[in-house]
UniProtKB/TrEMBL annotation:
The protein, known as: Serine--tRNA ligase
Phylogenetic placement of the source organism: Bacteria, Bacillati, Actinomycetota, Actinomycetes, Micrococcales
Function per UniProt: Catalyzes the attachment of serine to tRNA(Ser). Is also able to aminoacylate tRNA(Sec) with serine, to form the misacylated tRNA L-seryl-tRNA(Sec), which will be further converted into selenocysteinyl-tRNA(Sec).
Binding-site positions, ATP: 258-260, 274-277, 345-348
Organism of this sequence: Amnibacterium flavum
HAMAP family for this protein: Ser_tRNA_synth_type1
Amino acid sequence: MIDPALLRDSPELVKRSQTSRGASVDLVDAARDADAERREALTSFESLRAEQNAYGKRVAAAPKEEKAALVAQVQQLAADVKAAGARANAAEEAFTSIARGIPNIVLDGVPAGGEDDYVVLREVGERPVFDFAARDHLEIAEGLDAIDMARGAKVSGARFYFLKGIGARLELAIMSLGLDHALKAGFTPVIPPTLVRPEIMEGTGFLGEHADEVYYLPADELYLTGTSEVALAGLHSDEIVDLSKGPLRYAGWSTCYRREAGSYGRDTRGIIRVHQFNKLEMFVYTTPDQAEAEHERLLGWQESMLQSLGLSYRVIDTAAGDLGTSAARKFDVEAWVPTQDAYRELTSTSNCTTYQGRRLGIRARGESGRTEPVATLNGTLATTRWIVALLETRQREDGSVVVPEALRPYLGGLEVLEPVTAQ
RNA sequence: GGAGACGUCGCAUAGUCCGGUCGAGUGCACCACCCUGCUAAGGUGGAGAACCCGCAAGGGUUCCGAGGGUUCAAAUCCCUCCGUCUCCGCCA
């Protein structure tokens, strides 16, 4: 949730943010009206309640014979208090539901517009050039007997797959490399739950416009998480955390589940877009004034991962309209995928400022000693999808793949992945 | 799945049977000051969260797992839900 004070004091700032996202500006005025009504109702309830409390004390202190008369006098007051309380509750709820509909305020400098209005910040690394007909990642993987799509579909349906043999090892290797990166940077590794309660899923902002992306288990009222960001954000929900010794940095390793509703027909080949994959996710709790610098650091760690794998990539500053509900700014690192002649997203890092913190009740002591909502940030450090870019970039004419040096220690020193006969 | 116990202000606990003197006692931890050569101990005081009004000083409301109900008044009585623990069963 955005800061309600912002709504009151600088509505034009909120409106500007809404405009750059292509979101509703009217919502801002509606929220302001609801806030005014809420405060009015609250004040009237509180003064009535104060009156009633004072009466209660008089009743308690009064001699027995006077009690009945006093009690008779407050009957009406009690009814008024109840009505005022109900009105205040309703007004509060109305305000909250409107205010929650307003996505995070985008940061200055974020390009306005939709999906295609991103700004390319830089391109790094040479795009690979082949003097033979390059194979796509699935063809290579099938040659290595690393991915089995057909049987994945047989067992679980479309967009499911088996990683096997060197495919399974490759994923573990990439994850382990990422984990070592994270450890070096001081992150605490975490293997979080992947099923979460509704209020946690709600608090992270994933039940907004992308609710149909999320798997839900109605029998247990639990959601399957599409990223460990959800559980890691929930980790400190309703807590006052100690940031006096620096930010809390977690690296969550989990399986992620996504329904991919509305993407029928897109990326149907291979493991680019799947219902289930693994991901190593950085998640940081920090003070609001540190958030932007931390965001740059997260991006730096991501780039260093791609560089160590010898991938060619570009960094984009995502346009406002393409930000998630919670994000105030988002950088994507996209790797070059030769056979698609395109950059494809391998990592994404978002600065959610205090939006999630406010929704999830995560606070820290400010310098004044008062509590204030913390800023949260997240960023990908490795995912299953990386295998796509890796195989395609490092392929050779005979169908073998050269293992990047940084990855070799995680594959028992293996230097080249050789084609085998599939089983 | 069956039976039972429990959920109080950072932690540990008292209070709940008998509603008002309980927004709530005690211990530990914490902060400030005092005291003793230092440390430990001891003394005095302070200290929860959220929100509303106010330039401020300050005032007010809410919060005893959550939500309802009864009542002039609920930590305390009633209902529903959630969670934790123990035992039995079942499965690995």
